[in-house]
Amino acid sequence: MAEMTKEQTLHWLRNSSGELATSTLARLEDTLPWYREMPPSRRSSVGMVAQAGITSFIRWYENPDSSPWIASDVFNAAPRELLRSVSLQETLQLIKVTVEVVEEYLRDGSKQLQEAILLYSREIAFAAADVYARAAEARGLWDQRLEALVVDSILSGEFDHEMPSRIAALGWSGTGDVAVAVGTSPRPVDVDPIRRVARHMNADVLIGVQGSRLVVVIGHRSPEEGDSPADAIAFAEIIQAMDEWFGEGPLVLGPTVASVLDAATSARAALSGFAVAGSLRQPSRPLLADDALPERALAGDAIARATLITDIYEPLREHPLDLLSTVWTYFETGYSLEATAKELFVHPNTVRYRLKKVADMLSFDPVEARDSMIIHLAIILGHIAERSGSQASKKPTLNAGSR
After folding, report:
1. What sequence ranges are listed for the domain PucR C-terminal helix-turn-helix (predicted)?
2. What is the CATH number of domain 302-393?
């Protein structure tokens, strides 16, 4: 064979291509476990790639300037789904085995032919890397658009039946509680460190950029073996670790909800808190949205108003010790124990005891300045809601003269 001309070598290679392909598939079966475990249809596709590689080598040997067409010659022979089921590492293993078989088969060939095999194997390896890089880039752009769509849906609260499948397509691994954080968006936005922090803290994230806002949906992953749900890292701690990748200004964390499909509730609270964060003299970072309940309520947030009523006003109203009248009178008499006791016809120690009961029950102390403002606002909102409800329940009647 060493004395053959190039034309004779090409003729011999074309006649031997079938035998080379058969030997290559046998070697793949013997040396690559992942190939043996493939279903027959996938193995057939891999065989098509190996056959295309050998055929492409013959064409390339005939015309080395055709190297730009290697990728289309080889990888277009297989279905597109093969690219998703066979990794780049496995593809390189496939190339290595094929080249080894060809080298062994042609070990007595000319030096020029052996050098051509080495050069072609390099070209095909680079071509494979290029194919996978393009596929990864295309998938990354698609994932970015899909993730932006999902985050927009969470912020707007407009879900459809396709929402769970979209979230699953993004590889969402959060299976537990979820919270939404809203902060300012830096320029440029680098989301990779945020994802790394999430993985390190056993969480998953969905990230969206909306103009000057950076929105991060955080979800706890399933506990590791031996861990309990109580071992999950608090969302406030997770967002604190992500703080440096947000821009300057407010960073607000919404309340915890049961799942990602309930994230709209947390998002609305976070957005509302973000809007009013500037009204706080020294807002914490991150600021919990529920720590800005009074400001949110005054700004027209219906959820904040309902929370103040149900969590503060109603428990005060329903308590048997008449805590509602006691604390309301305490506020309107200038925070005076004596004046409150005098108006309620009780001893000042009784007022002091009731105020202590309020602090224990609500976790808001009426003696503290901000807590008293929150409780007072909840009482006002509760009475407004009750008055509005009673007025709405009265149906207007027509008298005889108005008919």
Report:
1. 323-380
2. 1.10.10.2840
